[in-house]
Structure formats: C-alpha cells, structure tokens
Specification:
about 1000 residues, alpha+beta, Isoleucyl-tRNA Synthetase, domain 2, 6 domains, seven-stranded mixed sheet, 30 helices, about 20% strand, globular
C-alpha cells in the first residue's frame, strides 16, 4: 500500500494508549534516566508549532535512552492555575475550572497527535486538589520553619521558640527582619499575639508590609517577570509600585547556597550567569548617615567603602518611607509628583533606563559620618527600594550613574581615587591610590576598603557586610484561580491549618472580581470560614507555587498518603535532562531550586538541586507577511479629503522598496527609475480619480489640489499567503474595508514582504500543528522541527521546507515496498556498501542525540536513504536497523515498518542498533576509468590490488572492450585508489 500517514498514525497512537506502552515503573534493575519538560500552561489557543520544539527533542532523547537500556521517566502535566482562565471567567462567567478542563483536553489531543512517549499515568495538574493539597503542605512546612545560619539550613520554628524561652533572641543567628532585642523573661511575659508577631519576622513564609507591583486593571499583585515596561504582560494594564501587606517567602536565606551550588551543574555558562546576576552577591559595608534636624538615620550599603570621602549627595528610592518625613515644605509638591510618576514604572524598567536622568531634591541634608559636612538628599528612580536599603551614597567621581546624575543636576564631583580623568567621565576602576580622603590618603583601593570598614566599625557608624540583589519572593496574589493559602486569622494573627485538614479547596463564588470593599475575589465567599468562625486568607498562591516541585510529584504521582515516598525519590533522584524555554531562566528556576533545598533541609528528599543538566531550547519564530498600504493625503486651502473616501491602495514588496530607496539615495539606476516611474503613473491615476472626487465634495474650493503619499506596513494572516504571494481574492473577502482595495502588482502578483518575530496570534503568523499533522503527518512535523536548526538557537518557521521532509519519509517507505505498493524485503546478507551506509549513520545519529544535535541527525537519515535507494537496497537487516535508528524521530512510520518486518512488540523496546567500526573499513575502491581523459565507467576493485593487476583488470573488463574497439592502448595510467586513464 502507499504510505498513508493518517491511518498509520491513528493506528499506533491507539496501540500505545491501549497497551500503555510508555508506562514506567519505580522498580527496575535498569539504570534510571529522568527526562523532564517544563510543563505548559494550557491556554485556549492550544499549541502552535513553536510549542512542541522542546517536547519533540526530549521525546527523541527519552526514546533513545530507552533503546540504550535505561528505565526512562518521561512525564507530562499541566501548570493549570493561572490568570488567563480567570480573565476569561470574568468576561464570560464560566468557571475557570471548566475553561481549564477544555483547554487541557485540547492540549492532550494535540500532544497525543504528535506521538509523544509520555507516561500519562503520572500526569499532574496544579489545579487538582489532590495535587495542591501537597503544595499547601509545603507552605505549612515553610511557615513552621526558620533559617539557622550556623547550621546553614531550615530548622523547625519550635526549636527557635525553645531558644527564646531560655535565652531571648540576642544571640540567635538566623535570617530575620526582627529589630528589637528581648530577653527570655520578656518573651515569657508576652501574650500569644505578640509572640506570634515576632515569629513572623523569622518564619520562611511570613506576612509583612512589602512594596509590590500592583495592577488595578487585573486586581492583583504581579511578579517582576509579569511586568513589561510598566504594564502587565497579560492584558497590557498599567502597573504601579505599592506598599501592601503580603505573604512572602524568605528565599534570601538561601541566596549563598543558590549561588554556590550553581558551579557543578551541567548548565550553560549563560544560564548560570543569569542566575548569578539575579542573585547578585556583593561585598562591602553598611554605613549610617545622620539626617540634619531629624532623628532618623539613612543606612546605605556600598561596595566601595573606600570612596566614603567622595560622597557629594545621597539618593533615596522614591518609595523609601523616609521621603515623606524628610522632604521640606517647599519641595513637597515636586517630590510628590515625582513619586507618583515613578510608581507607574516597574523595577526592571527603572534598572534598564540609563539615558533619561530624572530626580528631585528633597530639601533635606544628611551629615557625612566622618566630616560632619552637609550632603543634599535627592530622590531618583534609578535607586530601588527592593535593593539594599533603598538608599545610596552617591560618589559621582567613581560611579557612572552617579556621575551622570551629578552632571545633569550640577552637583559637585570630588575625586578620591587617582587614575582617571573626571572631567570627561567617572573613574570606576578598583585600582589606584586614595586622595582627598583624610586617613585613607595614599592607600591602594583594596587596603583602603579594609581600613575604611575597620574605622567605621570602630566608631560605630558602619560595618562590613555582604548583600544580595535577590529579594524575598512575594507569594500572595489577589485573584481566585490559584491555590488557597492554608491560613486562617484569629485576632488578626495568621495560623496555618493542620496537615490533616488539607486540602483547603477553593469555594464557589458568584463572580470572579474583587469585592465592592476591594477585597480579593475570595472575599465573596462570605460563609467560607475556618470552623465557621475564623476568616481564611483571601489571597491565593502565585502560579509558580505548583511548578516549584512538580518534578518530584511525577516520581510518585498516585501516592494518596504522602507527598511522595522515600523509595521513589531515592530511586529517581535528580532530573537527568531538563528542557525548557530561556524565559524561565531566573524566576522559575530560582524558585524550584529554593524549594528543592528546603525539602532537602527538612529531610523529605536526598538531593539539593532539581536537575543535573538543563538545556534551553531556542524559539521557533513566526514569519509574518507584510502588505504595504499607501495612504494618500489630499487637501486644498486647509480642507482635507476624508480618508474614508480614498480606496485603500496596497503596493507590492518591490514597489515599496523602490519608493523607500528613492527617499534614501540621490539617484536610482536607470532600470529602477523606469520601474518606479511606471508605478508612480498608477498611483497618479488613483490620485487623479480622488482629486475629481475632491472637487465634487468641495465645489466652492479654488486653487491647486495638493496630495502626498506615505506607506504603512501592515501584517496579513499567513493563511492567505503562499510563497510570499498574496491570495488577493481571499484578502478582499476578509473584511468590508478590504472590498474596494486597489493593488500595484509585480508581474501580475502581489508579493508580500516578511518579518521574523515572535509567533503570536496577535501578528497573524501562528501555524497550527493540527493542520500540518493533517496534511503531512506527525512524523513529518517532528522531523521538520528538528531539521530547522540547532535546538538552542532561535529560528524562523518556514512551512515551504516541510515538503522535503515529507518526500524523505515516502522514499524510506519505498525501500521496503515494491512498485505495486506491497511490502517486500530480501533476506540475503547485506553488501559492504549497504553496511557502510547504515553504520556511518548509526555512529552519526548516536553521537548527535547525545549532543542534542538533532538537526544534523535528520540530514544523516536523508543521506542514508538516498544511498540505500541508489543501491536498490531492501535488505531485511539493513531496513530493520535503520528503522530502529529512525524510530525516536518518526515513531509512527517506524512502528508500522517494524510490525511489517514481523515484530509483535513495540519498536520502543528494541535495542538501539550497535555500531561496528569494521563496516566503515574501505576494502574496495571504485575506480573511475577514463579513455583519453573522459570518464566512461566505474570499476570496483580491492583497495590493496597492485598497479599491474589494476591495469590488467581494467583492460579485461567488458566495458573496456567497447571503448577500445579492438585497438591496443598506447599507455595506461594507474593512480592507486584514485583513477585509471587509458590512452588510445
């Protein structure tokens, strides 16, 4: 039969499902291998062709490892809590659970259609109460733990309480935000409420007033990575910085471990560097500055304590709580306006902004800690409240941002480290001798740093300190569709539920908006009370809560009695290969590493890192098609022609480029001038038509009618574009505004331009894998996605190239089918050429898969099939081994051929073909034989044959007799293992 991908793929997908072909056990004599995908949020749009890229790569690797004899865990689930389902619920009233279920059904159908080898018995969904019960369990453990710095691990809060009861807190070495010191007797005299308030300052999950990204349009707090240029990534709503009482997790306690443990991981240097930058460890000093006429102190962290005498001003973050208190009356209005403007910008945006300098003087002055001189205090949004203390001592001579600020606002610049030219720029290098610096004069920078810290500590104005850019993770979200935080309040103090009371499930509510009083949506569940009496926490957990530990639940997904068993986690251990997008390189990975270390600390797991090897696949980018609209502006004596009266005119790509080029260069070539002139004539015809119409609209207007033309690129859905040629009829029928469209064409066609950008429904460049699977088959899609380019690089999608991959599979199919479409293989011994072609492919593909170089494997498959086709090979042994080789990439067609070869079990459990170097040894050489310099035929002879024997064999061959035609050769030239030339 002919290769019918629809019948074959449906058949084997059903077989895999019915037989649970990919089910994995936790008990095996085989070595384990765990391959993990970053699991998806199931959106309503389903998958586009960019989404499966990493899944296909991980599937190939999983199948390969299984064939190499490993017990492979390759699971899949859904990050099913999230804002999109909630937004849809707000718009339609449909419960997010129903929306999510529908979306998951679409995803599952698409994933099955592409033929992934997932163990679906281990599926997890973060929105399933049987799953989020354990997410809540982890939160309770965090709430009931504090970080002991001496032990360098999380410890039960009960042990801290015992210390307080015996010694108070003066000598407790813990990560905390507690300021007051108390004795054991003072602790014992406190009531329960006061004690629990203090404990919140030590807990790893705590409630506190925190600056957050508040999005009024979504009615919730957003993480930094959910904010782009001051607006929410979802919905494009304005976001402002706001002080709110929020749940946070003390991830900063783990900062050193998160940094140190990066080194041995098999992650890319770029990825590690992103993590290091996000954690942001810096060593320096904490320095206290008095405020003139105010009892408060400004504490700053500086990495350059040696430059203390170069401080000429201070800058506070606009949201610093001291701003209101110290700003003088005459500066209040300007400072308040600046604070308001700054609140609309995200921290990322403020950090990235280096060109625009802004700030306001508060009217207040600090006092230099050594000299006592007045230092003006400014506010500026390049200082962040979340980094350090939200205040900086500004040394413009030796810091580029301070230098730009000082130059802009004409603030003095004092050089204190020799070696630069501060007339032109700041001197930021950490080398040189100190000048203008009192007791530090003459010291080298490194020595001056230590001396400055010693003097600060001696005088009680500062101390040496290590600081981190990493901030505690804000954990609460003011929305409905998330995990309920298992907390209730008694006398405004938070208590966690007993673990036996989990899960705390989401209550039903009438609508998914904040209450009229401004409470989160859960506030609508007025009867939702702990034991009918105490109010629950109304915020829910962020989306990253459930995704911070899912890799562990996969190990023991059906365990109803525990989060997971020791046997399961001890067996599977680390993820061996983790694939996902680079967009999760900081947020998600830091959180999952944090939770892994915490679970290790409390004895639940024996690993401290989630994944040994992590690879970020590149993005498949969309190729947007562009049309170019010519907009005419017609007017006379101030009256403009109504744009709606001008029929839309679209110029083809070449026409557009010519017009653009004519604006850039002084003179076009003669050919280009002629072409442009003809295009202009077409435009003038339309302009003349519009001018006539203008006169009829404005009969009383006299004088010249003027016009101008500009061009605007617009995106057009790629569904009506093929090979850059627009389907004009389809475009004109795509909307009433396009019915009257006019076109200036190239050779009778409208040729679109193109632009490579993110694949997005918004840009009309999304390619649906369903369409490709229907037309070409899932195996073709899998191979083509790998063939596009190296896994880790971004690459544009181009459907035009998929035809070649489809032809390759059909050519492979024909190797084992005769001209009548019947399956036919031969059972003789393979020839040396057949074995050579096969084994060089085995070697190449095995090396490529181990290196994740999937694109070059696809090329190797194509070369091999071409060679076998030329050899007219249909040998059973060769076809069998090649099919096993191909099966990781194209499992459906491979299963079918494997079955036709007489095998009854799935090819997924067949051994990977063994490579034999001997088959690549060149025993024979195929000589090109020339007569009078022209190649006439080829003759295969043993490589070690002597020159005389080669000459004899050539002259005795039947082919030579034809070209000699009875003549005796004058000369025979033999170059061993190169050529033979017969001169007649």
């Amino acid at each position: 039969m002919d290769y019918n991908h629809k019948i074959i793929e449906e058949k084997w997908q059903k077989f895999w499902k019915d037989n649970k072909t990919y089910k994995t056990t936790n008990e095996s004599d085989k070595e384990k291998f765990y391959v993990l995908d970053m699991f998806p949020y199931p959106s309503g749009a389903g998958l586009h062709v960019g989404h499966p890229l990493g899944y296909i790569a991980s599937d190939i690797y999983s199948r390969f490892k299984k064939q190499k004899g490993f017990n492979v865990l390759h699971p899949m689930g859904y990050d099913s809590f999230g804002l999109p389902a909630e937004q849809y619920a707000i718009q339609t009233g449909q419960h997010p659970a129903l929306t999510t279920e529908e979306n998951i059904a679409t995803y599952r159908r698409q994933l099955d259609q592409i033929g992934f080898s997932y163990d679906w018995d281990r599926e997890v969904r973060t929105s399933d109460p049987n799953y989020y019960k354990w997410t809540q369990w982890i939160f309770i453990e965090l709430f009931n733990s504090y970080y002991d710095i001496e032990k360098d691990k999380a410890v039960s809060i009960d042990k801290l309480i015992i210390i307080f009861e015996k010694k108070g807190n003066e000598f407790v070495n813990a990560c905390h935000s507690q300021e007051e010191i108390f004795t054991a007797s003072e602790w014992s005299a406190m009531n329960e409420k006061d004690q629990r308030e203090i404990l919140l300052n030590y807990r790893l999950a705590y409630l506190a007033d925190t600056m957050v990204n508040w999005c009024p349009g979504l009615g919730t707090v957003l993480a930094n990575e959910e904010v782009k240029e001051g607006k929410s990534e979802r919905g494009d709503f304005p976001v402002e910085r706001k002080l709110m009482r929020q749940w946070s997790l003390r991830i900063t306690a783990y900062a050193d471990r998160l940094l140190k443990d990066l080194d041995p991981l098999d992650w890319t240097d770029a990825l590690k560097e992103m993590q290091r930058h996000w954690i942001g460890r810096s060593q320096g000093a904490s320095v206290k500055f008095k405020i003139d006429g105010n009892d408060n102190l400004i504490e700053v962290f500086t990495t350059r304590p040696d430059t203390i005498f170069g401080v000429t001003f201070m800058v506070l973050a606009p949201e610093n709580e001291l701003v209101d208190e110290i700003t003088t009356a005459d500066c209040k209005e300007k400072v308040a306006a600046y604070v308001k403007r700054s609140s609309a910008r995200s921290e990322r945006e403020r950090m990235a902004e280096v060109k625009n300098i802004s700030g306001e003087f508060t009217g207040a002055y600090a006092l230099h800690p050594f000299s006592g001189e007045q230092i003006p205090i400014w506010i500026g949004d390049y200082v962040l409240a979340s980094y350090g203390t939200g205040a900086v001592m500004s040394v413009p001579a030796h810091d580029s941002r301070d230098y730009a600020f000082a130059k802009h606002f004409v603030i003095p610049i004092v050089e204190v480290v020799a070696g630069g030219n501060i007339e032109e720029e700041s001197y930021d290098a950490k080398s040189g001798k100190l000048i203008n610096s009192d007791f530090l004069n003459g010291l080298e920078v490194k020595k001056a740093m230590k001396t400055a810290i010693y003097k600060m500590e001696e005088e009680g104005i500062g101390k040496g300190e290590i600081n981190f850019r990493l901030r505690d993770a804000i954990f609460g979200r003011q929305r409905y569709w998330g995990e309920p935080i298992p907390v209730y309040f008694k006398d405004d103090i938070p208590y966690v539920l007993e673990k036996s009371e989990l899960p705390l499930e989401l209550p039903e509510i009438d609508k998914y908006l904040p209450t009229e009083a401004g409470d989160p949506p859960l506030g609508r569940a007025t009867e939702w009370k702990y034991k009918g009496e105490y109010s629950y926490e109304l915020s829910t957990m962020p989306g990253w809560a459930g995704s911070s530990w899912y890799f562990l639940r996969y190990m023991d997904a059906e365990n109803n009695n525990d989060i997971f068993s020791d046997d399961a986690t001890n067996y599977w251990g680390n993820v061996d290969l983790y694939l996902g997008g680079a967009e999760h390189a900081t947020g998600h990975l830091l959180y999952v590493r944090f939770w892994t270390k915490f679970l290790y600390d409390i004895g639940k797991i024996s690993i401290t890192e989630p994944a040994k090897k992590l690879v970020n696949q590149g993005m498949i980018q969309g190729r947007s098609s562009l049309m170019y609209r010519a907009t005419m502006h017609i007017w006379s004596k101030g009256d403009a022609y109504p744009p709606s009266e001008v029929p839309p005119l679209f110029v083809s790509n070449d026409v557009y480029k010519l017009f653009m080029e004519s604006n850039k260069v002084e003179r076009l070539s003669k050919d280009d001038e002629d072409r442009l002139s003809s295009y202009k004539d077409e435009i003038r015809d339309l302009e003349q038509e519009s001018t006539t119409k203008f006169r009829s609209l404005y009969p009383n207007k006299s004088g010249e009618v003027r016009y101008g033309t500009s061009f605007t690129p617009i995106r057009v859905p790629i569904a009506i574009v093929k090979n850059d040629v627009l389907d004009i009829n389809a475009f004109q029928n795509s909307g009433p505004e396009n019915k009257s469209a006019r076109f200036i064409l190239e050779d009778g066609k409208y040729i679109c331009g193109s632009e490579v950008e993110k694949m997005s429904k918004r840009w009309g460049n999304v390619v649906n894998p369903d369409d490709l699977c229907e037309r070409y088959g899932a195996d073709t899609l899998r191979l083509y996605e790998m063939f596009l380019g190296p896994l880790e690089q971004h690459k544009p999608w181009d459907t035009n190239g998929i035809e070649g991959v489809s032809k390759f599979l059909r050519k492979y199919w024909r190797l084992c089918h005769n001209a009548d479409g019947e399956f036919e293989v031969s059972d003789g011994e393979p020839t040396s050429k057949e074995l050579k072609s096969l084994h060089k492919t085995i070697k190449k593909v095995e090396q490529d898969i181990e290196k994740l170089s999937f694109n070059t494997s696809v090329s190797a498959f194509m070369i091999c099939v071409n060679e076998l086709s030329e050899l007219k090979c249909n040998n059973r042994t060769i076809i069998s081994d090649f099919t096993k080789l191909l099966s990781s990439y194209a499992p459906h067609i491979a299963e079918e051929v494997w079955n036709l070869l007489g095998n009854t079990e799935s090819i997924s459990i067949a051994d990977f073909p063994a490579f034999d170097e001997a088959n690549l040894t060149e025993d024979n050489f195929e000589y090109p034989v020339s007569f009078n310099g022209k190649t006439r035929f080829k003759l295969e002879l043993p490589s070690n044959m002597s020159k005389d024997d080669v000459e004899k064999s050539v002259l005795e061959s039947e082919e030579s007799a034809k070209w000699l035609d009875g003549k005796t050769p004058k000369k025979v030239i033999v170059v061993p293992n190169r050529i033979v030339n017969v001169v007649v």
